[in-house]
Amino acid sequence: MSMEEILAGESKNIEFKEDLPEKSIKYMKSVIAFANGIGGKIVFGIADKTGEVLGFDRQDVFKKMDAIANAVSDSCEPAIIPDITAQTIDGQTVIVVEIAEGRQRPYYLKALGRESGVYVRVAGTTRLADEYMIKELLFEGSNRHFDQMLCTGSKVTDEEIDNLCKSMKEQAIKNAHSEEQKASIKDVGRQQLRSWGVLIERDGKDYPSNAFAILTGRGGAHVVTQCGVFKGTTKEVFVDRREYDGPLWEQIEEAYQFVLRNIHLGATFEGIYRQDVYEIPPDAIRELIINAMVHRSYLDHGTIQVAIYDNRLEITSPGKLPMGQTIERMKEGYSKIRNEALAYAFSYMNLIEHWGSGIPRIIGKVKAAGLREPEFIGGDVDLRINIYRNQSAANNATNNVKINANGTNGGVNEPATKEQEQVKKLLDAIAQNPSATQAHYAEQIGVSKRTVSRIFASLQEKGVLRQTGTKRKSNWIIK
C-alpha cells in the first residue's frame, strides 16, 4: 500500500477503517462484497473521511490481525482466506487486509444466509445484492452460462428450428466481407445448434435453450432494444423514441439504422469526388450495438438502451461485468464470454469476428475519425459506453474535411497530420470570431499568414468556408 494510493482515497476496491469495530459485521460485509467482485483491500488504521494515517501501537497489531482472521473464518461462507499484513506508512503501522476475487460465488454472511447475506460493491459502496445479482453470482460460481440453460416451459417445433437455421445462414451471407467468405459458409443444422447450446437434446427430443428464445424473440424471453433521441445532454426532453423486438439480428439492424438517421452526415473529397461520411464511424456504431447484445446479462430484465444526445451517443447494456472482467482489461482486448451460445451463433452469422477484438477495434475507429476515445462507465450493475460527438460547426467541418500536408484530401480514418491540426485550430478561431482578418487568425494559431491564406483557399474550394460581406469587412461562414 503506497502513500499515493492512500492520497487517492477510498475507491471501488479500497476501503479505510480508523480502527477495528467491536462488531465485525461492520466490515465483514465489505469482505463478502470484495470476494463477490474483483477483490479489494480494507486498510485499518486510516481515517476514512480525511485519509489521515493514524496507525496502531506495535504491541496491538498482531492481536488485531488475529481478530480479523478469526472473524473472516467464522463469518463467511464459502470460506474466504484473506491476506493480512502489517505495513508501515508515513511512520505509522497499519493493517492491510487483501481479499482476492472469489471463485465459489456467491459468498455470504453465515448469520444471514444466502437469501439475505450476499453483498456486492456498487460505485465504491457495499450493498445488499438483489435477486438478479445472486442468480448471476450463482452461474459464475458454477461456471455455467444462463443462455445455455433449458428455457423453462417452452417447446420448439421442427419448423421453428428449420426457420432459425435458414435465417442464420441468410445473416451469415449478408454479413460476409467477401465473395470468398460467402462461398465458405456452410449450412447450420440441429447438431451444430446442440453443440453451441442453442438446442438441448433430452430423450431423443430437442428443447429450446434460453439462447434459442433470445435469438428468435419467442418463448419466455422478452428482449427489446430501446432507442431515443434527446434534446440537450440529459433525458429530460424526448425528441423521438422507438422500441424494437423480434430476432436479435433484426434488433441490431433497426437500432443501427435509427442511429444513422439521427446523427450528422458530412463529406470528404477524393480529388473532385465527394464521399458522404457520418460524424461517428458506422462500423463502430454497429459493433457497439452487437457487443451489447452478445455480452449483456439476460438474467437482468433491463433493456439495451441506445440514446442520442446533442453531445454523445450512449449505449447502455444491462448487467455487471462478468467475473474476471474489468473495463481496463476489456479495452485491452481481454474477452470474457457471458453468453457462450449466443457468441457461437453471432460468430457463425459474421456479426462478431475474433472474441475480444471488438472493443479495441471500436476505440481505434473512433479515434481515427478524430473523435475522443470512447468513455466506459459503470460495470457494477450495467455498462455504459459514450462516443462523444463534435458539437461545433467548426469541429464538424474539421472532421468531415481533412487536408493532408500536400494539400489533397485524405480519408476520414487517417491519423491527423500537422496541417490537419492547423485546419482544426483555424476553424475553431473562425467559429469564435468570423469577421477577423487572416493576419489575426495566423497570429492566433501560431502560423504564418501565407499558411493561413493557403488553408483558406483550400477550404473555400472544398465548400467548407463561404465568404460574405465586402473585401474590406469579410464575414466567414463555416458550412
What's the helix and strand layout?
Blueprint: H1 3-7, E1 14-17, H2 25-36, E2 40-44, H3 58-75, E3 76-77, E4 83-89, E5 92-99, E6 108-109, H4 113-116, E7 119-122, E8 125-128, H5 131-141, H6 158-174, H7 179-183, H8 190-196, E9 199-202, E10 205-208, H9 210-216, E11 225-231, E12 237-244, H10 248-261, E13 265-270, E14 273-278, H11 282-295, E15 304-308, E16 312-318, H12 327-331, H13 340-348, H14 358-368, E17 375-378, E18 382-388, H15 393-400, H16 418-432, H17 438-445, H18 449-461, E19 465-469, E20 474-478
Task: Report on the architecture of this protein.
There is one protein chain. It contains 18 helices and 20 strands. α11 (282-295) packs antiparallel against α14 and α15 (393-400) runs antiparallel to α16. The chain has 4 domains: 3-143, 2-Layer Sandwich (Methyltransferase, Cobalt-precorrin-4 Transmethylase, Domain 2), CATH 3.30.950; 147-216, no CATH class; 225-388, Heat Shock Protein 90 (2-Layer Sandwich), CATH 3.30.565.60; 400-478, Arc Repressor Mutant, subunit A. It has helices at residues 3-7, 25-36, 58-75, 113-116, 131-141, 158-174, 179-183, 190-196, 210-216, 248-261, 282-295, 327-331, 340-348, 358-368, 393-400, 418-432, 438-445, 449-461, and strands spanning 14-17, 40-44, 76-77, 83-89, 92-99, 108-109, 119-122, 125-128, 199-202, 205-208, 225-231, 237-244, 265-270, 273-278, 304-308, 312-318, 375-378, 382-388, 465-469, 474-478. It is an alpha+beta fold and 479 residues long. The strands form 7 sheets. It has a 6-stranded mixed beta sheet, with helices on one face. A hairpin with a 2-residue loop joins β7 and β8 (125-128).
